[in-house]
C-alpha cells in the first residue's frame, strides 16, 4: 500500500461522486455531507459503475439495482450480503491523500529507482 496525493486539478468539491484514476487504480472520490470518502468503482452485485450512482445518509447507492454500501467500510445494506472496497484518505496540508495498493510491477519499478 502507498499513500498518494490526489492532484487538485483532477477533482472538485462541488461534485458528489467523481471517477478518478491514480497510479493505475480507478476509484470513486466522494464528497458527501462535508466529508471525503473513496470507494471502488464497480458494484459487486453485477458490476455497475458506482460513479453514476448517488449518496444518501452515509451510503453510496448503485444506479442499477439500488444496492447500498456504507461509505466508510463498504459494507452492503442488510440482506445484500456483499460489500465494496473502500480506501483510506488523509487530509494533509498540501492536499488529500489516498492509500492505494501497489501492483507487483510498480513495486519492482520503485525498487530499481532506489538503486
Ligand atoms: S449492479 Fe449494483 S446493485 Fe446491481
Structural overview:
There is one protein chain. The protein has 115 residues and is mainly beta. Helix content is 10%, strand content 38%. It has one domain (2-114): Rieske Iron-sulfur Protein, CATH 2.102.10.10. The radius of gyration is 15 Å and the shape is globular. Strands 2-3-4-8 form a four-stranded antiparallel sheet, with no helix packed on it. Strands 1-10-9 form a three-stranded antiparallel sheet, with no helix packed on it. The chain has a three-stranded antiparallel sheet with strand order 5-6-7, with no helix packed on it. It is built from one helix and ten strands. A hairpin with a 2-residue loop joins strand 5 (54-56) and strand 6 (59-61). The model has no long low-confidence stretch (mean pLDDT 94). The structure holds FE2/S2 (inorganic) cluster. FE2/S2 (inorganic) cluster binds at residues 43, 45-48, 62, 64-65, 67.
Highest CATH level, the class? Mainly Beta
Q: What is the averaged pLDDT score?
A: 94
Instruction: Estimate percent helicity.
Output: under 10%
The low-pLDDT segments are none
Assign the CATH topology.
Rieske Iron-sulfur Protein
Strands, count: 10
H/I helix tally: 1
Helix/strand-derived category reads: mainly beta
Largest sheet: 4 strands, antiparallel
CATH superfamily: Rieske [2Fe-2S] iron-sulphur domain
Large-scale geometry:
globular
Task: List the helices and strands in order.
Answer: EEEEEEEEEEH
Number of domains: 1
* CATH architecture verdict: 3-layer Sandwich
Amino acid at each position: 500500500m502507498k499513500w498518494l496525493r490526489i492532484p487538485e486539478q483532477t477533482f472538485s468539491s462541488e461534485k458528489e461522486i467523481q471517477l478518478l484514476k491514480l497510479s493505475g487504480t480507478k476509484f470513486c472520490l466522494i464528497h458527501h455531507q462535508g466529508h471525503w470518502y473513496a470507494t471502488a468503482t464497480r458494484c459487486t452485485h453485477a458490476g455497475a459503475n458506482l460513479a453514476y450512482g448517488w449518496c444518501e445518509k452515509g451510503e453510496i447507492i448503485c444506479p442499477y439495482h439500488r444496492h447500498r454500501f456504507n461509505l466508510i467500510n463498504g459494507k452492503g445494506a442488510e440482506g445484500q450480503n456483499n460489500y465494496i472496497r473502500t480506501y483510506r484518505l488523509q487530509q494533509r496540508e498540501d492536499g488529500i491523500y489516498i492509500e492505494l495498493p501497489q501492483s507487483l510491477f510498480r513495486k519492482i519499478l520503485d525498487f530499481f529507482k532506489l538503486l
